[in-house]
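Fold this sequence, please.
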Amino acid sequence: MTPRLDADQWAEVWRPRRPLATDDLSQGCWRQSRPDALSRRYLEHSPRALLSMLVIDVDHDDTLLRALQTPMTHPMPSWIAESPTGRGHVGWVLKTPVCRTDAARLEPMRFAAKVEEGLRRSLDGDVGYAGLLTKNPVHDDWVTTWGTDELYELRDLAAGLGELMPRTLPRKTADASGLGRNCTLFNRVRLWAYRACRRYDDRAEWEEVVEAFALAVNHEFAVPLPAGEVGHTAQSVARWVWRNGFTAEGFRAEQARRGLLGAAKAGRANTSEQQAAKRRKVDRAAFIEEARRGC
């Protein structure tokens, strides 16, 4: 018999320290202690800095059937949490979380977004799901079916999806969904910020401008991301770009540094050419002297 996850094991692999949680989505959510969050109907499934679980929202009344039907077009889920109507959330626990801070590499997040899209296609999940909060699988209001206790690497999930694993993410902002929106938002804001930052000398003003640009990009999505998530992405990009010398002052300093390096390289090149010329002269003189001796 295949080992199954249970409530205690899920709580152990659930990583957030102070997660967002709520009993009523219409009333908003707020950060709470882990014990308090575990008593709520909805909670944040991954820390802000790390993507540790992938969750798909199935807006159909046969969530369990779609998640466990044979033949299965996706890897065995870690859990399925359903409402009495049969609608629910299906989740997979990642063995190696994906970093999503300002220090993160974009490629792993893109890969995670493609895996999530493949899982969504397999279940015909909701493209508008924000991916921030999930039905708490240990809460009594939900009917939870526990799946495998195996922790997945992204590549294992990708392999299990087969033909459903997309090769690329949508290029148009309006077509992005799920984690793809996060990747698109981060990339658009990042590339814009590298050049735009040179025009600003005040950090507070810079961070406001970046957030305004990020909100503008977010409005291009068919289903926009939550404002708080957009603000976090904007803040991460703004701080990273400012810290790494893309400001006007930093740009001038970098240009000066590159100029000095170029001059130094040119100087070394000229010296090398002069030395080579001297060697050529010496060799020519030696050749002529040798020729004379032979005559």
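The chain has two domains: 7-164, 174-243. The first strand starts at residue 20 and ends at 22.
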